Amino acid sequence: MTEARNVTVRAAGFLVPPEFPGLSSMTGGYLCAYLDAWKVSLRMERRIRPLDRSTCDSLVTKLGIARGKLDLKSGRKALNSLVGPEDPAMDPRLRHVLDNILSTGRLQDLATEAGLSPQRIRALISTTLGVPPVRLRHWARLTRAIEVLDQGLTAAALHGGFADQPHFTRIARRLLGSPPGAVF
């Protein structure tokens, strides 16, 4: 894996924190597990963490990949030891925002529903989750879009709330480092 600072790191696998800037390439076959920023420990280190072969093999086994049947629950349990527990304790107002990020049109309306000012909700999202609200919304749209990716990129883009397929592809490339067809 090559970081923006032109540092090459070699390992069997990597843990990459949400919104880690500057990854430019990964070579060879690899497994990517994208975790929602709010579902990992808020204390997760903001650096790439290399994983040894036995850890990677254990994750692949627990995810059920070799058996051809994904076991996400077991895989998540295995990841807990590396990234912290799912759904860490958080401010209920922030939980409201996360639950409704796509159902409410404007951040101002969402902030009002949560009983906060738009400035305070922006600060709460950024400081707690480490991502700005616009990225949070993009991630939620991307997550929704991949639910129907098997129906094609245009259908997925519309389902996710993107303006069109190129918009979906741009956001996927920005957040995942690759277009959606190459990742999923």
Automatic annotation (TrEMBL):
<dbReference type="Pfam" id="PF12833">
    <property type="entry name" value="HTH_18"/>
</dbReference>
<dbReference type="GO" id="GO:0043565">
    <property type="term" value="F:sequence-specific DNA binding"/>
</dbReference>
<protein>
    <recommendedName>
        <fullName>HTH araC/xylS-type domain-containing protein</fullName>
    </recommendedName>
</protein>
<dbReference type="InterPro" id="IPR018060">
    <property type="entry name" value="HTH_AraC"/>
</dbReference>
<dbReference type="GO" id="GO:0003700">
    <property type="term" value="F:DNA-binding transcription factor activity"/>
</dbReference>
<feature type="domain" description="HTH araC/xylS-type">
    <location>
        <begin position="91"/>
        <end position="184"/>
    </location>
</feature>
